[in-house]
């Protein structure tokens, strides 16, 4: 999946809200828990997070364990990750898997104070799910992601 939108803020502040850390749980309605399991350097970690059930719980809550890295990329920032086979799955969750994913955030040259945020998401929710349910959930999740992020940045 690819998601793209203009966000009214600077790249550093936007990426601080997306990457693993204290802001994400405050605004992202899909993420229910997030634990940093290992930190390798300031912008590099292994995190475990859980997501809420979706589509009236047709898609049960999921758990992911991802390696995450954030770095400067051209004029902006890149935060990327990939799932790891790490630790036991917690009860009441299905372990999902993220293939290489990333969020690119670059300033808009013609519009100071605005940034272009582009996400590439390759997730396997796993479990017995019809692809149409996954596609529906992903489209609403990504739309809500941008809406919730924009609200969080205004506070």
From TrEMBL:
Gene this chain is encoded by: Stard4
START domain boundaries: 1-155
InterPro entries documented for this protein: StarD4, START-like_dom_sf, START_lipid-bd_dom
GO MF, any single term: cholesterol transfer activity
UniProt xrefs under Pfam families: START
Name of the protein in its database record: STAR4 protein
GO biological process: cholesterol import; cholesterol transport involved in cholesterol storage; intracellular cholesterol transport
Gene Ontology cellular component annotations, sorted alphabetically: cytosol; endoplasmic reticulum
